[in-house]
Amino acid sequence: MVNNPTPPQLALPGIPDTVDTATVIDEMVRRAASMGYESWWRRAESVGFCAHPIQLVGADEYGRQRVVWTRCNNRRAHICPSCSDLYARDTWQLVHAGAAGGHHDMPITVADRPQVFLTLTAPSFGPVHTTGDSAHKQRVCRDHHRTGGYQRCRHGKPLWCSTVHDDDDDQVGQPLCAECYDYVGHVLFTWHLPELWRRFTIALRRALRKNLKAVGVDPDWIRVSFLKVVELQARAIPHIHTLIRLDPHDDSQQSDWESPVGATELAAIIQHAARSVSLTVNDPCADDGVRVILFGGQIDTRPITPTDPVKKVSPEQDSSTGRSLSGRRVARYLAKYVTKSLADLGISARRLSTEAIPDLDVSEHVRAILTTISDLADRGLSGVRRWLHTLGFRGHITSKSRRYSTTMTALRQHRATWTREQNAKNTAHQHNPVTQDGDGDELVAWEFDRAGHTSLGERTLTITAALHRIQQRRTACEALQNQRRDMQGEVPDG
């Protein structure tokens, strides 16, 4: 007698593998067959098919109860694909407006000002497995010719790796020897990175003032503006991408202002400031009780040009060529990675406790980081245990100086105004008040009712619709780019 193998379980978007998909499908069918499905669908569509909408209730001046939904605005793709995609697009608008100008109340003249794209990485705390990608050419992870031969660490582990790892290989980012890896230094760098960044901004402004005084220019004539995005490397440690721009201190000089410092000179000043800044912190595991925190040796500075170069590669991939970057390319690069989270490492957005560390479905590298955080908290590093769920990082993922560009709030207000205007033109929305988002109901006192959908079936329906809409938009954008590329390639007769 041959036993038939168990049929594979159907994978549903946004549903963990531990959940019975048959139950979720039944909930989806019941919602689709219900009497209020059209009303529910219009309400879900009004918030862009948000996977975790916030429901507000209130009563108007006539005592009628009103119910509205609003977006969760979560940047993490595994929690809400719709809001995450919207957050990435808003980030693109924010970065591009500050780099190229011409929209969102940013003058077009900002594109001609000195701008530098800077990447600040963490120092090495031990050799790790890498993809070995160099100028789009795959190579082995750690070639013994480049690492000094077939050497081993003091624990007997090889310090070379002849494997060609793919980007989705689980070994990428894992240390070659976990016993040699400096986990204490890893955690302390992550924990003190916000303060190290603050000191860098101070050092940069001081270095710029010193340079301006040396050439006889009033240092108060120039203002430093920046936008910063923190990205998590494969070895589970953050590094910083930032756009730094020089502006006139007085906004009335926006049109005829010319910077006395060029982009190349600004890049040199940034390099000096980044390599000179340091932070001395307490290290309970060190013999002398202190440790000096520095940025890594890979400090990449790239000038920003108003026009796109011919070669289309990412900022990090083109770093070896020394070519400048465009504001559009940097905006696309930062928007792509701003929605990354720790979900790929097996950690959710909720706070963790020390007791939960052994039961997490994470790699041994991540588990060692969490254990080190807990140990340092026991040794007196105050407050670090609250940030287990972020691997010890306590800063903002995205931040900017006040006048670098527009704001997320302004972008959302502009979108809400456009949505109201479109709804006013659409007779279907006028006859279906359930789709209204609450704008214009100034006399209604809204109160929080609940967050999320009532069932996993409803959540699956909205996530499926959101993914379908995102794919449609990306396909349309690619088609439009191909059409523009074909039009630019056409040569007129004669």
UniProtKB/TrEMBL annotation:
Write down the superkingdom of origin.
Bacteria
Question: What InterPro entries does this protein map onto?
Answer: RepSA (IPR046828)
Region listing for Disordered, in residue ranges: 305-325
Annotated Pfam families: RepSA (PF20199)
Question: Under what name is this protein listed?
Answer: Plasmid replication initiator protein
Q: Which organism is it from?
A: Mycobacterium adipatum
